[in-house]
Records
---
Amino acid sequence: MHRAPQNDMEQDEATMADGRTRKRMDRPASATQALPPAQEALIAPAGGAEGSAGRRGGRTGTDGARRGLRTRPPGPGRALARPVAVWAVTRAVLLLCVFKVVGLPGPDVTGDITVIYQGWYEVLRTGTFPLDDVTWQYPPAAALPVLSPALLPFLDYSSAFFVLACLADATVLALLLRAGRAPGRQLTGAWVWVAGAPLLGPTAYARYDVMVTAVAVAALLALRRHPRTAGALMAFGALLKVWPVLLLAGVPRGGRTRACWRAAAATGGAVVLLAAAAVPGAFGFLTAQRDRGTEVESLGALVFHVARHFGWEGRVLLNYGSVEFLGPYVTVVSRLALALTVAAFGWLLLWRLRAMSRRYGDRRAEGHAPLSTPYDAAFAAVLLFTTTSRVISPQYMLWLVGLAAVCLTLRGSRQGLPAVLVLAATATTLLEFPVWFSHVVASDLPGIALLALRNGLLVAATLVCCRRLWLMTSATVGPARRPGTASPGGSAGVPPPEAGEVPPPALPERPSRRPTRPVRRLAADGTGPPRYRADPD
């Protein structure tokens, strides 16, 4: 029995003691000292409602009370939201341009869609290729993107084509974002694509090259884990617009090479046979390029731009769907450009043979080539093809931007400078076409200076890319070593980690066999339930 208070002082002391007791009982769990998760897991009730909610990060228990005091690190969603937001804004501007809500100086770049593509569409619907149209110079699978606006029958042809081009653009971004989140990779490649495509202006959506680029990007990113899928996509891309066949240049030797090439040959042969049997004139594109001249935007065209100021009697005409130089010595310059292309691919073949002779792609080789080599080789091959060609159309820049983006998905990629040069060349191309295209056609001083700048950036990007590819392969690929022997940077029989690849985790330490016992620990302030942790004897 409790003794009743005798006076007012005792009554006040009893009231204060009762308040302290009640305050201690009402104190939330967060007032006690929190234990690390590993120790708290040892005392959490198995299957308990509060314990399971705390482990899931719910609002009950200690985690819920401390939520307002803890700063949560940014998750992967926040890192992905920024490129997606910038992509949405820039692509909205591109759509406004192609729908002619916002205009740019110079010729209308959407004329190819509303006139040429739609004319091909009407002919292809009859079951034949447009053989009577000299502007049709594409492989048989190019009929698919031309016919693709039929998938959106509620829109007119040009509007449907622009929407599908935007979807292909979004596909490239999704592939690069997915690749950038993998271990040993980065989101720099996605940012290159987000920034690079709009630098070309409305031409990016007014040609079907963005669809081809999506196929090429998917093929390269699938090469490491799914070589057969990559080979099939490369072959399909080559039947869309030839150049994706160059992606095969960097496939590492061994089983992946055989699987990739077999899949490419099987897919290409099946599509060609189907097109030849179903639609007449599938191979007319093979001879369509024979009589072409030198396009006014190509590297060799700079000779005629300067020669016009010294009395060269040539003309600038719309020929085979592009603006070209026609006149004396044009054939000579075109043949020199073709010889330069052959020499460039001769260098690429030499690199390939040299790399294979030094066991490129063989993980047993001393300092085997890094993961970035297939990407870098594809980038270099397409740069060589584009720069030395007698035709450099503005949409070709999309190919280079896409491949540069794939290269920069890997951490430690050495193609940063070539990628920057390609982005600068893409921005210059927008000024050259369509903004100041009249100056280029007139061969005046601003037009020549702008064209020389753009082509000079392409030449610089090509030289730097090829040099880094050659030096990287020479430095990392050596003669094969015997199994079980040690190598620099790696233990016996284990190759060193590749550039851009996260090294394998170390083996876990053997757990201690010493018995453990629970040790009682009170909270820091001496209140609250006892805490336990396992300490070794």
---
Amino acid sequence: MAFIGHRRFLGRNHPYRKQKAAFNNFPEHSPHPVPLTGEEVLCRVEEEVLNWLFGKKYPQPPYKGAEDETRPCWKKKSIFFKLDYWKFLPVRHCLDVMHIGKDVCDSLIGTLLNIPGKTKDGAKTRLDLVELGIRLELQPNFEGPKKQCLPLVPEDYSSNISNLVSMDDLRLSGLKSHDSHALMQQLLPIAIRGVLEKPVRIAVIRLCLFFNEICCKTIDVSRLPKIQSDLVETLCELEKYFPPSFFDIMVHLTVHLVREVELCGPVFFRWMYPFERYMKVCKGYVRNRNRPEGCIAECYTAEEAVEFIAKTFFNDNTVGIPAAPNREDKPTSGATVVSVYGKLFDQAYLCLLQNTDEIRSYFSLKNEFPRFENNKKWLTDKQNKTFADWLKEMVAGQLSEPGCDIPEIVRWLGNKPSNEVPKFSGYKIRGVQDKRLVTDDMSFYGVMNEIWELEYENFRFPIFKCDWVENGRGVQVDDFGFTLVNLNRKGHLNNTSILGRCVEQIFYVEDPVDPLWSVVIRIPTRDYHDFETDDEIGNILINHHPAAAAMSSIEFSGHLADEEEMGYLRVGKEDIVVDG
């Protein structure tokens, strides 16, 4: 069963409603469908359940098509309707975004790569197109009793993506739900940048960005109508290039996700990731495979009893749950001590002073050159060269006075650290990020080369030495919203140091269009908020930052009255021969 006809969800005057050849050869005049209320659903259920009995002894009548109005929509009445308030709920059953995203990703990957058993394109699909009377250029040609020759898929529908992947070594099989989650929201939009035509590329990227946007931890409610309209346009655009068999129930359910977000809040409050994780815990309780339910019940009861006794009588924390999050910054590798002097050491020390809140206020106090107030660049360079020595003298002078109240960290940072600097190959940064107001919307991209640790007696500060990319000619944002960097264009050579807590980890993916450029991908953030609760399921929020900043617009070109036939056949390619 195919769920096409998403033009019904468009506005009354949308251009897609008048197009014929691009869809099903008919204009769309049907109004926007209105969701049934709980009372209407209960009324229909009570009528249909009385007419059609439920069970294997009472098989349902055969389906006769869209004109079969006597076929029941529901087989049984839900037990939840016995609750007095159930019929008044606007959302009685939440859609599982986790499995919807996984199934949509599998359909996209299987169709684009033409994976056997997972593709939505084939001989039966082409015969459906013939029966519907659309895209007749794609009908199969018979070459013998057991072979069918399929024309190559539409030019704007797919591409030879399978040539870019070695299916023998890198098979896309056995993907978990979160693997599909990350693949669709981050990697798939980049993979199709150089191998698909612009119309289908925009449609697929917009679908990926839709899942990324509704899975965010914070959602702007005022943007929900815009997100819904963009999604409907995207589905209509996909109907132009993908076969009807692609639009199964899971693809269609994306239309209703925005309504649930508006009524129920962000997706992560109700998706299945925490429950799936807890099911893995329950499976670990099984010792006797012949009695799995009993094993789970006994182990769960024993664990609850032990935790209750430990918490009540011994005031002990729950096993396996830390009392507080670990915010300690620490290296992940062994140290190699090197001696650092000169300009590199002064840059690292100045970076530490500039990014310490207690020291930053002293920069405004040092103003020994009032004549050069208008020359900001010269004044900044002069201040950076002399600030360390001035700070040392100022701290020493205040310490000599009785009753000084200089903070401890200022006393230590007034003197330079040791020139014997330990170097590491890895460092874990878990400290609290900078919470100051950001007044400059500019990001700096680079590659980390070395990790230093400036040591004092009571403090340690990780310093990263990076090769920064020139912001002018080395960073750009393309038409699809992707941030691209050219790692060969280096800039900011006089300021290569940065404090560890001021950076955010990202990684780069080589751009399929131009190998000189790389696409910026941000690492998903994980926030643990259940340290002070007794919830065993937990609430781990996984937020994938999109590679593209915003949805690309769809161009409505040409005159709808003089609509031309769309070209679905590739030129100069061989046909695909499949078993009949």
---
Amino acid sequence: MSVWVTEEVMRRALRFSCRRSLWQPRGLQVMTSVRDASSPDQPLSHIWSTRQSQTLLAGNLVSPVRYYFQGKIHTEGLEEKGRLSAQPSQSSFPTKIQPTETVSEQTLKRIPFYNKLEGCGSPTDVLDLTTQYLPTNLQISNCLMHMWGTTKKMSEEQLRYELQLMFEHPEFDKLLQMAMKGAGNMRSKDLTYSLLAMVKLGVPQRSLVVQVFLRTCQEKMNKFDEKCLSILASCLDHMDSSPNVNALKEGMRLIVDARLPSIKNVMALQTMMRLVGKDAPLVLKKKLERKALSMTDQFSLPNSQHMISIMATMGFYSKPLLDICSKKITENIHGIPFNRIFMVLRACKELLYRDLDLLTTISDNIASTMDIWSTKQVVLFLSVFEQLAFCPTALMEAFAGRAMANSDTLTLWELLCVLKAYSFLNYDLQDHRQQFLDNLSQALDSYLSKMSAPAVLKAVYCLCLLGHFPAAPLEHLLQSSILEQLSPTIPKLLRSQERMFQTVDLCLRLDRPPLPRPLTVPPSVLGDPAPCNRSVHPRLSRALQDALGDGADGTLQEAVVVENFYLTDGVITKPLPVTKGSSPAGEESSPAESSQRIAVICVPQSAFCYGTSHPRGLLAVKIRHLKILGYTPVLVTEQELESVSEEERVAVLRRRIFPEHQGADAEPKTD
């Protein structure tokens, strides 16, 4: 019995001794840190305050390359931090062997902290929890990450309120103080996660605590694994340029360059590619491209998907690599989830990369599996296809059926996206066109009272491009109360609104829609006509003059502006061929009736839907209005002018302007 009592006394003495050795220094370090970070008269809030952080950092920022390579902190205000970093970790046990009971008890003591942390629903809940415990370095990192995690699903208003409470909470300063004190002893993952959480929570980037973490990352960067580097890269993406941020970015590029030859798997390579960022030197991007091309035989389907999005992250266009990835995706399109397909399309848009087989395959696959996609998902696909200037015929045909059957379930955002996609891509549903547009118009009527003035203008503008003129939206747009709200101060936005109003005005005057009462666009919102500064393409000008020869076949006017809005590169007036019995004897036809006006328009390839000769919305309405005004539009692409010889250009123009001379060989004038 006495032996048992003696052993129990020894155990309790050991526990007390361990607790004392673990807790007592931590309290002393906090006091020292407070004394170093600010004078006794200054509040702790200065640790993260922008004004104070700028004062503390003024004149102390050394060259970022020196920070990275030397791995030291040279400012006097941070010398104490370096000395403290050399001390044993606060969150670790003493190096001496400890009794098993002590370790198990300490582990059990930590469990309630994490259980309570999981139950915290806001940043202030976490801060309240820190008053009950003195967190270790790991727990500090977990607290910061959980605080950020609780804000992710908050509404904008709730987030603003919670962040204000967080910054005003007295424990927030103490938590940042402890984080700054323990930064040098944190594990690499905890260090990078803590920095990311602070940046996401809005801690000022120039504050002392953030700068300490940035400099500590510089010291430890050579020991970072791929995950830590990836977390750090995500953090730096959300930070403004500064000496320490730039130093870390440069350091990551040096690490990528150094580790590149040893990379053996695709996932590691893609992590390195994501780290370099858009402003990396082109030489480094080329090295990564060569490495990726040498490993294409290892590419899986997910690798191919991520490679395209990573190239968008890098801001690097590599057609060989993009083509390989596109082919892989095209061959395995079935079963790819929405997020990944959409991610690929968005990346293609950012890179200005379009592969006809890839886009067509994605469109056809979505159309054939329409039932598994929600309306929001399909609308997102339509929107990104429109941004790529690609007309997904199968998808637009399939979705039109769903939209006609359930137009009343479309949200306002979905409705506006659908109108924009169908109008800008100039898609004609033919037999179902009128029903489709009528149903969308009825759905739009139900939202008019809730829509902002710019949204009403965009909706009416899209309907006008489609040649559809419902009375209710037009009348609502032209109300004085709506027009008064359309007075932007940004010149670019103002010019955009004026162009939309000018198009609506032309449609009302030229298309002459049957409306309950006449409507006109007030001159005050039309602005001044855009000055015609664009000159006629010199090659087109020479080819037109050569095609007309001596002028016997017609007369040419160059750079003609029609209706003070539409610019035509040339208008050719030629006599109509006289046919037997074309006019009664003794009657003379007027000059307009006896001649034909041909409007020659030079257009970029971007004016057509990608991979086709189908004109997009703006060009389509221009062609429609020119025909109403009695012109015969003839389109010539810039690519045609650049890619053929002068003789071939003249021959092409003569075939299109004088088809009667060519017989069966004549080409269509417009799509």
